[in-house]
Amino acid sequence: MQAIYLMGLMKKLLYTLSFLLIFSIAKPQLQQKIDSLEAILPSMQAEERSGILLELSGLYQSVSLEKSLEYDFENVELQKKLGRIKDLSGIYNNIGVSYYLMGDYGKSLDYFEQSLILREQFNDTANIVKTLNNLGVISQISGDFQKALAYFNKSLMFKIKLNDTLSMAKTLNNIGVLYKDVDEFDDAERFISQALDYYMALGNQAGIAAALNNLGQVFDERKSIDTAMVYYFRSLEIKRKLHDDRGIANTLNNLGVNSMAKGMLGEAEGYFMEAVKIRKKIIDNFGLASSLNNLGSLYYKKGKYKEAEKLFLESNTIAENEHLIGIEQRNFDGMSKLYEAKGEVARALHFYKEYSKLRDSTFNVDLKDRIAALKVQYESEKSKRENTVLRQENEIQELKISNAQKERVQFITIIISLFFASVLVIVFLQYRNHRKLNNQLKKHNRELEIRVKERTRELEEANATKDRFFSIIAHDLKSPFNGLLGFTDLLHDDFDELSDQEKKQFLGIIKEGATNIYKLLENLLQWASSQTGRISLIPEKLDLGRQITNIIKGNELVYSKKRIVTQMLVKSTNFAFADKETINTVLRNLFSNAIKFTSKDGKIEFFVDDHHSESGKNEIIVRVKDSGVGIKKEDIVNLFDLKNKIRTAGTEEETGTGLGLILCKEFVEKNGGQLFVESEPGKGSVFSFTLPCR
Q1: What is the overall mean pLDDT for the chain?
Q2: Alpha-carbon separation of residue 324 from 104, 124, 280, 306, 314 (angstroms)
Q3: Cα–Cα distance for residue pair 136/148, rounded to 1 Å
Q4: Which residue from 95, 450, 512, 653 has the highest number of Cβ atoms inside 10 Å of its Cβ?
């Protein structure tokens, strides 16, 4: 951890930080929405006006940041008059986001800190986490690594308690970047790799791209340039698909640095120029300053000193305005080397002193041999310009030093000694604090490793369940195929000897077997798609009465054979809010089961009614009631268990797949509902499920 405060040269600082900032995306109807809100704003009273101002600020954040800030500042004054201090935290956070997007990191940091104070005051945990992450990133951009680490550390503790996997991944990624910037590459790779694993498990493409880019930087620092290039290209491919201009510019910049290290100066120049163009377009001042610095270093390598000097100065102007200490260091270092190459030793020494001053301000107390060499060279040239007489006068003057002067020298020596002793004490205290922070990070890492082991155990259990499931499926597929093969053999071998009635009977058996196999495969494919995440639920407003009517009509031939009467009663006037296709699957399976276990001349009823959950949420409940054979109490608990799958023939010896109810329960729960069973042998069954409503 000593490297946390012993910074060294800051290399390619913070090109690809994952910044958790939330902002609106312009839509085609955006201007129309803005116009309508601005038209009604003057007539709104204070309470209503506050909400309109907040909405306008969000809409303008993707159109005009200045206008967004104007509405935010008006809302701040309004909230203060209303005495609603808690609501100020969200407005301050919005202002911080706007200033970040404008490249004013100092003001952004101020407003994020004000937001954090209020959110901590009101124990707003979910939003505290977001603000801590934003503060960590801004501090890291500003070069305050100690503060950044403290913010990330605190944020990670909250996220572990909240079990917020996505946010944990973002913070792990940021901590990994921080370790990279202080040359702790093993720790950097470990944290970023953990973040990548989380992103991949969640399918978060933006996070995957950011982590790949950061891993590329780690391998760049280790001089594994080819490996780094692979990570960069993988990251760039994803970012282009996402149209992420900021991310694209970051990775292009890194590819430029990588190409320059390989001596591919032409390719490097192309990458840097494209990055500069994008960063000017999106007003990314930090990224622009960094790319200009890299382009200056490239021209320095090419010997184009005039162009390099211009780029270093342009980059440094931005860095000074935005308080980007790390970029200033790189510019001063670049100009020092440039002037040294041109033979302008005094100017080279001046810029190296400026570089060292900034380096020391970030707790880097190591002195480098290069400054000593420059001093020697400067003093040597200065000595050559002195004449012999001046040297003789200096020698005479040295012999005439009085006792008072000696005492003065002694006094200065004591002061200097005390100063260096104080510096050593400060360094020791900083080292102790950083060691404490490192111990905390190790503790949290152990907690993360425990959590990963728990997740691994859960996955192993899930895999074991799937193995049992597919073992059952293999048996269920094999049996009907044996029957099909047997009857097709009979038809093939004895076709001429069989009567037409026997042929028709065998074909009916084959058709029924094929239908059952098809239903089994259909349920299997839907279950497999659900387990692997390939089913995308698209919630929408559903008219359940219409869906049930369609299901009943679609099965009319089936239930008519058993002379079953169907009835539907819809009492609710609300719409369900769920995925249409998966709910259709649930209704089809429940209706099919009801037909299967209802005797001839029986009855099946559908009921749709409003329902209030235990937590008080408004829901819709659907009941499918039949007059069938019913289910034993001991069998009900095993209806949805793969290990104890229940399979019973219907009243007309109909067969089933045994998967329908398992699929129903999973689809209902994925849509935010619950499935219930009520049944008694001989009295029929009622299958009910709930759904959210709009």
Answers
A1: 79
A2: 11, 31, 17, 24, 13
A3: 4
A4: 95
